[in-house]
Each structure stands twice: as structure tokens, then as C-alpha cells.
Amino acid sequence: MENSVEQTHNNVSGDLVGRDKYVIQTVMTSKARSAIRLEEDFFINSDDDNSTLLRKLKDGKTNGMTRTRAITSKLSAMKIIFQLNKSEEGKRILADIYENLLTCVSRVTMPMEDGELLKHKSDDIFSHFPALVSRYEDIIEIDEAFLEGLLYIATSNCAIRWKVE
User: Fold this and answer.
1) Cα dist. 162→45, 47, 139, 154, 158 in Å?
2) What is the pLDDT of residues 137-152, one digit of tens each?
3) Which of 1, 6, 24, 66 is buried most deeply by CB count within 10 Å?
4) Closest CA to 85 of 148, 153, 133
5) Could you name the domain of life of the organism this protein comes from (predicted)?
6) How many CA atoms lie within 13 A of 137 on its CB side?
7) What sign does the dihedral 70-75-80-86 (CA atoms) show?
């Protein structure tokens, strides 16, 4: 008697039958109770015409629709940033969020090789956004769209490159 198993559209022979495995990973982050940055060390470099942003996105071989969305996203985030910058506590919270966003991007880019494009890892970056939103939900109302805009502001600030070098 032969050891075989018939599956839909498959005939598997042998002693072992493999199955798809689903791994669900829960990421736990600590909640922020207040800003831990003592100074307001978040600055936006002047990139009025978005030339730095567009150049870095083009270097990363992003398409035109992504580049247009980046500009819109950046401008939307700027409106929120101007509101946050009205208070010292808001400035410190913004610096915290910015630093934590850069840390998330760093986790994604660290194992990448020179020449790799960040656009291929954008889902990995965006997957960190819900945890960041949740982390700050008790002290400030932000959403994933704000974090996307902040990501493009960081690109304009030369803190993020879309082609690893």
C-alpha cells in the first residue's frame, strides 16, 4: 500500500504532508504618558518647492502618483504640525513621534543592502504605524495619514532615503 494523500488539485506522496502555516505576531508597545524629549529638537528643513522630496522619491524609483501623494500628505501633516508647535509640550510630543517614526524606518532599512529600494519595503514601514498611533492615543490624537505625511517630511529633511546607500 502506497503512502499517498489526495488533495484538491494535488497528489502528495510520502510520509509527510506539509500544510500552510499562518503566523500571527502581536506587537506590543508601551503607551506614551508624556513626551520624553526635554527639548523641541524637531525642525523642518525648508523644501518649499519639494525638490528634495521629489528627488529622493525619484531616486527610489517611485511612480508619479506616489510622488504626488507624498506632497499632499506632507502638506496635510504640516497643518497639524503648526498646531502642535503652538505649545512647548506639543513640540516635545512632535519630536517624540518623529524620533519613533525614524526608529521604525531604521528597523526596516537596517537589514537592506546598498542599492535596494525602500518602496519595496513600504508595507513593512506602514505596518508600524498602528502601533505608533496607539502609543500616543492617550496624549494626542494622530492617525496613520499624519504619520505618512511625517514620513515624507523626514524625506525632505534628508533623514530618509528611498534608495539605500
Assistant:
1) 18, 17, 31, 11, 10
2) 999 999 999 999 999 9
3) 66
4) 153
5) Bacteria
6) 11
7) positive
CA 93 to chain centre: 18
Q: Are 150 and 80 in contact (CB under 8 A)?
A: no
pTM: 0.75
Q: Would you state the cell numbers that stand for residue 69, as one nine-digit string? A: 501623494
Contact between 156 and 51 (Cβ < 8 Å): no
Using CA atoms, how far residue 90 sits from 80, 93, 124, 133, in Å, is 10, 5, 28, 16
Which residue from 99, 124, 108, 123 is spatially nearest to 161, judged by alpha carbons? 108
Please state, in angstroms and as integers, the Cα–Cα distance from residue 107 to each residue in 89, 112, 144, following that order.
Answer: 27, 10, 18
Give the Cα-Cα-Cα angle 71, 73, 78 (nearest 5 degrees).
95
Cβ atoms of 163 and 58 within 8 Å: the answer is no
148 contact partners, CB below 8 Å, separation of at least 6: 73, 77, 126, 129
* Separation between Cα atoms, residue 15 and residue 19, nearest integer Å: 13
